[in-house]
Amino acid sequence: MQYRWDEFTLDREGALLTCQGQQIDVSRKILDCISHLIEHRDRVVSYDELIRKVWGHDNVTNHQLSQVILAARRALGDDGQAQRLIRTMPGLGYRWVIEVIEGSSAPSPSPPMPSADTAVDTPSAGTHSTAPSQEADHRAGHSARRRLGKPIAFLFGAIAMIVVSSHVSHTKSRTKADAVLAPANPITELKSALIMGRYEHVREQLAVLPAELQNSPDIMLLDIELDIHRGRFARAGEKLARQLARADAATNPVLHARLLVQQSNLNNRLQLSGSEVLLPAQSAVALLESAGDQVPTDILAEALWSRANGYILSDRFDQAQLDLTHARDLYNSLGDMHRMAVVRGSLARVWMRSGRLSEALEEMRQVADSYGRFGDNIREIFARNTMTKIQIELLRWDDALASSDRSMRLLREVPDSERRYPTLQLRALALTGLGRLREAGSLLDEADGPKSERTDFIIPAIYHLEAGDPQAALKAAAQEFNSTSIDTSSNLLLENKDGALLLWMTAAQAMTAAGSAMPIPSKEQLKILQAPAAPSGGIARGRWLWSQGHLQEAEAALRQALAETQRLNQPYRMTLACEALIELLLQHNRTGAAEAVAKDLRAFNPNYMDRDYRANLLRLRVALAAGDNALIGTAYRNTSALAGERKLPAEVTLRLAALNLDSARRISRN
Question: What is the Rg, in whole angstroms, of the alpha carbon atoms belonging to the chain?
């Protein structure tokens, strides 16, 4: 069987791939891979199915398969980003998506279709004559086609007239409807387009507005806001400075306040300090409050929203919550669902930083649903990804995977989105938490984009630790620490310098336990280890002091970090603090103290702690140290059930082997 597409031909039986008749040298695995995808192009071919077909057995990683796919794409001139031939279906497999012609030999050019009034009764000169019976059949069939030709032509003509008429009618009605539905004030439409991210549309419309609108305050402010959204900060700053110099707060407090709001927004985008974001917004709100009832509701809402951002950056969360709640209610009263969704997203982030993760999760769910109704896939992906992060922080691994399902489906509709790599990585982390390391590794390979796009190494570091490769984890954590500029403690999933440092220290201690020399922290790392500002940094400090033999100081640092994670309601980081603390206590035969820590950890939220692998592994470690066979059996059963493809630590396996494991299993079954 031969398959043809573009200028390529694949001869399945002859194991030959050609392009314009020239053979392309590829391995048999690549030929088998391409052939199987083509033969089953009506569906997605799963990773496992393709592995079995190409290698003939299952003992192959998804990374090896991805390398074959990469080689196949290169041989076929298929861009891995555009994926014109072989498309990756994240989490599912691969699919051949271009049309293929099947045949046993090269196709002859198709003759032109005769028209209803044209007959071709004899072969052209120089062609082979048809066999008598075939020629008779050909003439009979052709005669029938001639008889049917005119009625069919008439039928197609009638259909064409109906289609054209329908299109004209639809176009007229649509034009009339658009005229009726179009907002009387084009500024309203442009503001909505701006909040939806349609920047080029806004730019084009601003250029063709009527002269009477060109110099209006609304258009001037919209133009500045567009520059801020598009990242043209210097240009926006120059325009703002000119307008603020002309504005008179006494005669037009509303306009002056609106300019101050844009100044606050610009300072926020420039990542200036919290006070530099807060002060202009505070002045704007004060001006609007002094203006009384003449202030439009949407302008007051925007000023409150900007002031809330300043409060957030200044760690004044109570005031931020008040302003955001007020702004949300004002936008709701106006029916402005787009801006309300954005404000709710900010409110969710305030609750995250305040430790109110369950409320933040519900708020972000509302945001995601809103963007889903708007058909705004990019923003919905962002909201769903934030939901996934919150669920992971709460140790709700199954829920996190379900949230990522929706993000992955949306990603297929916007495959070139900047959210692609974060989405793939988050799903990989959810899979890692469930012990599905093979799938997680495959997604991380897929998410490993060009250097210009690859900036997040936190999740790879976590994955490598779970997969038992501390050296790879150390490298990824160092890359994250050196590349990120984020030093705030608010980010989830250790996405900051403190979190990267914690993963680095965890990997360093794991390497030391395996017999390697203790890696030396850099000067910048030592600076944080000496004075951490976040709980994750405190855990890293505890591990560092422990590695230096300062046991009392290490225990104090770990207990302080644990208390802070409890205060902030961060179960994920609580397990990391307890893991270090329990290991330290057990290493120095303080089993009773370790038991108390493990008990408090489980009591924080048994519903989710009981379904977390790391929390159960800690209980197993403590049970082994205490020598409680009944507890060992229960903890071993739970840990094994949650491990997935993860291997129990070597020291745990050795201690289990030293016991009567069969007896422990019988106890666990009872």
Answer: 33
